[in-house]
What we know:
The chain has helices at residues 2-5, 22-34, 53-65, 81-93, 109-121; strands spanning 13-15, 43-45, 71-73, 99-101. By secondary structure, it is an alpha/beta fold. Helix 2 packs parallel to helix 3 and helix 4 runs parallel beside helix 5 (109-121).
Amino acid sequence: LAAVLAGKTQLVGLDISGNLVRDPGARAVLGALMELEGQGVEWLNLSENSLSDHTAADISAAVDTCRNLTVLDISRNAFMTNGLRIIAEELQQNHSLRHLNLSHVHMNVESVEHLANALARN
């Protein structure tokens, strides 16, 4: 999939939800998305893929690279406080994202604070 994505320049969105690609698969796909010419995808659904903090930096890099990204769904994954902090830090810089789905991601108070601060600055 990552190899095929590398040659696509007109891709608007990508939904790989529910495939349990885990961190290595997601990293490959996110790497390919960052190589797309132009402004990148407008929407990205990575829900239900058993993603962890190990993928958070890759998600942040993709959000940074995909300047037209308006929808990001990372729900039903296994992020912890550190991973959500990494993603929240990128959200402070991003001004195109309009919809962020974090449903069924187990957050503690610290994670919620990171996200709230990031979204307040967005």
